[in-house]
């Protein structure tokens, strides 16, 4: 019998049928290999080659190229270098900063945010990136937990911070508040000459670079430590997806988030790109900005893409140079709508978190998927989806006390093995929460995995889909919201006895809107106006409950944990709920009784919350 060997053509056809994504997987893994080689080259030049070193190299090779474009002005790489030199000198002199100190930045998106960060790098200091929406106790907590000794803000902050024996600088030339120091005048007086590398001589790739905050179940945000190594690794997201020095990236996301700060800003520096920085996202100015500045790459969160799709259609919708959008949280229907309306822009959806040791990238472009599992990832970043017991709020275990892996195609809790290659870096000054983030004895006694807190699904083709979050956090308006912090604010009201906060689905929106089930103190009545005023004083807009449900009692488990599963399932559905229900009305500055008219308007999309 003669055996006929397959021709190269038939072999390609066979492989393409059996493994339709093999070539793309190989190409992606080859790109990762090139990234590894590139980093090795940098290490030969300098053992500890940080993002600052990369920036300074750009200053030497392309000093006049714009790094930042902001509100009509351009700032070259050299401009940013000189401004950061002045800031470094001013802070060293007046803030008494030395190598290893931490400075908290309570700033919005503007060039001085970038200059501050670069200046701190030049002094060998770390930056704590505070969410400028937080107030009261959360602000004090975030400042204290990272061990910061200096706070830089654009507005007057809590007098309590002065009791921490910290230096508080305001970005202005004048200030009449005792204890606060002006900074702009001091920066203007400082020299822009280069800062000596000796001032950062002890910085290694393992040194803390920034603290980025993530919502915690304790009620306060947790400070995730991002080392120089972690920042450097995050810069390659753009490189992996084909960005070059000729691209212009548009960043409307807050720089206190890892997406805007690491992937956007530092990814641009690594590539030698130009950043068009927006103070805050504007749906009306978005495409005009992109056209004006010849933007080729945009950053997004799912909610911003939905806002863009909801605007009235214009003839100029496809008149732009944007070729790629990178971000997360994009729903399948919005994905299709966006590409249909604004042109076939390549969407690069990814899954990652500032406190996680695992991530996925949808480099194929599969609509609806947050990433793809490949052989490289399985080999070097062991992970699994395990069964989660929603009632008990913890992973399910078998008779041997080990976790139960989920079959392919079914939803499970994502856990990632903690290894030397994929470490979990502790939360700053929070050993209790650091330990709670770990799951031990997962597949064998003694092992340790990171609990991402996210429910995912992986299909037969190895595409990864985000399903939901677990625990005491939910996501709304692109922000992670800690339920216990809201509960503390609610129970501070004179008429509320207990509160249970959770997230509920709202048709046509991303994430979950905040909802609270509360009980009232004996003899008290709910005051919608007072509740609105109190909540607005202590919580940022995205954390304010959109619905408040009044109950006679809150159901708890035998271990005194609140039962939220039923509440989440009922949502704000007036056809099910018989309890008094109130709706957050921003325009009227109060919580008003929910009516069927309001309910129908919300679920049909006529009323936006």
From TrEMBL:
GO terms, molecular function: long-chain fatty acid transmembrane transporter activity; long-chain fatty acid-CoA ligase activity; nucleotide binding
Membrane topology, from the record: Multi-pass membrane protein
Name of one Pfam family that matches: AMP-binding_C
This enzyme's EC code(s): 6.2.1.3
Top-level taxon of origin: Eukaryota
Enzymatic class: ligase
Reactions accelerated catalytically: a long-chain fatty acid + ATP + CoA = a long-chain fatty acyl-CoA + AMP + diphosphate; tetracosanoate + ATP + CoA = tetracosanoyl-CoA + AMP + diphosphate; a very long-chain fatty acid + ATP + CoA = a very long-chain fatty acyl-CoA + AMP + diphosphate
GO biological process, one term: long-chain fatty acid import into cell
Keywords: Cell membrane, Fatty acid metabolism, Ligase, Lipid metabolism, Lipid transport, Membrane, Nucleotide-binding, Transmembrane, Transmembrane helix, Transport
AMP-binding enzyme C-terminal domain boundaries: 485-561
Primary location group: membrane
Cellular component GO terms, alphabetical: endoplasmic reticulum membrane; plasma membrane
Localization, UniProt: Cell membrane
Residues covered by the AMP-dependent synthetase/ligase domain: 57-361
Protein family per UniProt: Belongs to the ATP-dependent AMP-binding enzyme family.
Protein name per UniProt: long-chain-fatty-acid--CoA ligase
Species name: Denticeps clupeoides
Lineage: Eukaryota, Metazoa, Chordata, Craniata, Vertebrata
